[in-house]
Every structure is written in C-alpha cells, then in structure tokens.
Amino acid sequence: MTARPAHLPDFDSPPLEEVILGVQFAALKNYTSVVAHGVWALFKEEYPDVEEHPALDPSFEIFGGTSGFQTNLQFRFGNPIRGRLWFVSPEKNHLIQFQEDRLLLNWRREKGSKYPHFESIASIFQSHLQALQNFTIKQLESTLDVKQVEVTYVNLIPVANYSLISEWFEFIKLSGIDLEGLNLTFNEVISGIDGKPYARFVHELQSAITRDGKEKGFRFNLTFRGKPSGNQISDAMSFASAGREKIVTRFKALTTEYAHKQWELKV
C-alpha cells in the first residue's frame, strides 16, 4: 500500500472503535473441511484462537430498485464447514473472518491500543488475501473471483447527554429537546466518471452505551460498499482505498469544530 495521502483529515485521538475491510468472492469450488483447515493453517501462527459462527448470506449492492441491498438466501443443513470461522489474534485486536465466499479483517480497539491507520490495516488485509489466493491456486486450481468490497469505520463517541448531539454533528440541529435516543440511517449512491453507480455509502448514527457500560454515546458507522472495477485483488484494494478516502473526508464534514478539537485534528 502507498503512504497515507497528505490531503486527508488526520486526528491524533479519533473515536474509532473498529475498522473492517471485507471482500466477497465467488464461492470456492470443491470446498471441504480439509480446505477450511488448510485456510486456518495459513493464519494460525498470528491468529491462534478459532471460533465458529453462522455464515453470512451472499449479498450485493444493487441500484435502481426499491431496495438497495440484495441478499441471496441459501439454506445450509448439517454442514458446519459452510459456516464462518473467526481467527483471533492473541491481543484480540485483529480478527479474520473467513467463509467459502468471504474474507474480512477487523481491527478492534482494545484497552491501551492506538489506531494504526488504514495503510497498516490494508497492508495486512492485502497480504491475507494474497495468501488465500496462493492457497486456492495450489489446492483448488482457481483464483479469487472478487465480486464486492466493503470498508466500514465504527466510531463510538461518549457524551454526557444525548441532547448534546448538535455539539458533535453538523447535520443535526436540536434545541430544547430532551433526547432519549436516536436511530438514523441515510445512504448515498456513488457513481463513476461514466455516470454509472458502482457503490453505496451508508451512514448509520445511533444512541448507544460505551463498552464498559458506564457512559452514553453515539455510534457512528460509515460503510462504503460495492463492486470494484475488476475481479482481482489489486482491484479490491483500489476500491478499499477509495472508500477509505470517502469515509474519512465525510466524517470530518459531518462533525463539528468542537468535535475536531476533542479528537485533536491535525491542521
């Protein structure tokens, strides 16, 4: 990955709780428990802990209809390898999610940890994708056929009172309202230079409680998700970089100068 673009907003103390990079690809052919074990073997030195979770159904961004998100329901009976495996690092701050049609990397803030910036996370993710593709070429005689990419930033902003929301967000102006809670979602369709839509930018703002259960807060999720220009790993990483740029720029635009001071925006 290249160096961090100098024009992007940069905070010394951003309220980031989690960053997720994910690629959805065509389901691996001849996928078996042997293949699943082989995939874990690729990562078990760095991610020794394994958890089993229900699979995520295939889903794709679509444009022009009444619903922007299409899920292809698949029924899975009596076959645990069709589930989703979590490979967790000893520090618990990095997590790989793998199933037969997906690979995701989660960076999660743990106590005392500092956000390593996107370039570091993306570099790790790219190396994991390449390791997986090398494995599928050798074992399954196929490359990863990338269908969709997503980038998500999860922010958690502690507040003394939900009614102080206007101190933190430019696009919400409330006064005289004793706000009990909030659940707001709005989306934007992103089009290329040819005018055709290729991604959806999802904004989710919710009242929440901090992880220790001691404070109120706002959870502000920004997700950039869609189809890259090609089906290769390099195309996926280009899409992810573009998504990150959209997210970071939008985050600054939607938050206040007061918030920027709290998060120590570099000028």
Please explain how this structure is put together.
By secondary structure, the protein is an alpha+beta fold. Helices cover 23% and strands 32% of the residues. The protein has four helices and eleven strands. The strands form two sheets. It has a nine-stranded antiparallel sheet with strand order 2-5-6-7-1-8-11-10-9, with helices on one face. Strands 3-4 form a two-stranded antiparallel sheet. Helix 1 packs antiparallel against helix 2 and helix 2 packs antiparallel against helix 3. The longest helix has 23 residues. The chain is globular and about 65 Å long. About 3% of the residues have low confidence.
What labels describe this entry?
267 residues, alpha+beta, nine-stranded antiparallel β-sheet, two-stranded antiparallel sheet, 4 helices
